[in-house]
Structure formats: structure tokens, C-alpha cells
Amino acid sequence: MRRKLAAGNWKMNGLRAGLSEMEALAQRHPDPRVDILLCPPATLIAPAAQALSGSRIALGGQDCHAETSGAYTGDLSAGMLLDAGAGAVILGHSERRALHRETSEEVRVKARTAQAAGLTTVICLGESAFQREATNTLDIIGAQLSLSVPDGSTGVNLVVAYEPVWAIGSGKTPTPGEIGEVHTFIRARLESRFGPGVGRSVRLLYGGSVKGDNAAEIFAIPDVDGALVGGASLTAADFSPIVEALEEA
Ligand SMILES: O=C(CO)COP(=O)(O)O
Predict the structure, then answer these.
(1) Domain with 198 in it: what CATH number?
(2) Residue 111 in contact with residue 83, Cβ under 8 Å?
(3) How many structural domains is the chain composed of?
(4) What does the record give as the active site (predicted)?
(5) ipTM for the whole complex
């Protein structure tokens, strides 16, 4: 059985004052029936690890470098994230693919390094609005998946997040049928590449405008094991109902 996962991506939001939202979330969910992962800006990982010690909330980064150390001004290594208290890292988010021109090949090299360091990699895939209209979405997702996910991935070190670019921060979501089609496709591809055991153990998250009021419908879709949530993960009041919907799914 895959353990469900509610993950929050704070993106470039959050100062130390935001730690109180994390603490409030931990108080609301002292013994959650699902995994909870918060990925704040890197500056907050170490203080969050301290603030959340003893809680069941795990922490993650939002990116890391493909190399383990060296002359890469401004970058962070997987080992640094781990050292600060992270157990996971988001890689290949569409904002990094678009704004930092990250390719799937680069994502795969980063993921290999992060997995070797002991981090769980949350690898993001998703088609743009243009791609959905102009081409076959499954071809786009299939190519991103095979190029971004490294060999040696397992249900422990890999989580895949399907985030249609046009659904991020837009208030628009695909239909349950559209989400289900992509998740079922990703599951089948993982099973054929890694074998049914590993393929069935990897958790698949949906991301893009997940809120408290649409979470239950999304979590009822087969092969949706949780969500990667942006805006609605920033406060305990918004994120907690999503965690509860997942616990009840
Ligand atoms: O990009 C996302 C999570 O990584 C989704 O963001 P929103 O939930 O704000 O649409």
C-alpha cells in the first residue's frame, strides 16, 4: 500500500514569521494518517526543522544542484539540504523548467545526485496549455517522465508530481477524467520501466490549484496518491482541510 502524501511547495514565499503556520499545522495534525511534507524556501529549512522537531511533518527543498560541491555561486547541494533538515527535494518544477530553462536531462542528473545523497526526489512533470491543445499530452508526459527520472529510482526515493502548467496558480483544474488518464499512464510507464513492484510503490501526486474545496474530488481519482500544493499550503487554515481530505480518501 502506498502511503498518501500531502506536500506543500511554498515557492519564493515565507519569512521566519511563516514558521508559526508550520507549527499550527503540526498542532492540528499531531498524528496524521498521511505523510505531510513542507518545502519552504531553503532559508527556512533549518529553523523549520527546529520548530517542527517532534512533529510528524517532514521538510524538503525546492531544487538542488547536480554536483555535490564546488564553485557554483548561489546554488545549493543535496547534501546541504539534508544537513539543514530536509528529507526530500522538488526537482523539475515547471517554474524552474520555464524560468531557468531546466531540461529533463538536467533534472535527471540532479535527481541522481539527490537520491544518492539520501533525499526523496519529487519530480514534476506537466504539459503547457499550448502543448495540451497542439499535441498529445501523454506524449509530452511520457517524454518528460522517461528523461527526468533516473535509473535506480524506487518507491522510497521517487515521488512523481503531475502538474499541468496551465493549472498552476490559475484556479483551473483538469477534469477528474483528464487527471486520471495521465496518472494511469504514468503508473503504467513506471511499471514497465521499473517492474510492477517498484512501479506500483511510487507515489503519484497531482498539483495545480488544489484547494480545500476540490481536494476530495481529486483524491478520489485512481492512482492519485496525494497532492503537491502551492498557494493553499502557505497557511495551516488552507492546508489542513487538504490534509484531512486526503486522510479521508
Ligand atoms: O505549482 C504548484 C505546486 O508545486 C501548484 O501551485 P498552486 O497550488 O498554487 O496552483
Answers:
(1) 3.20.20.70
(2) no
(3) 1
(4) 93 (electrophile), 163 (proton acceptor)
(5) 0.99
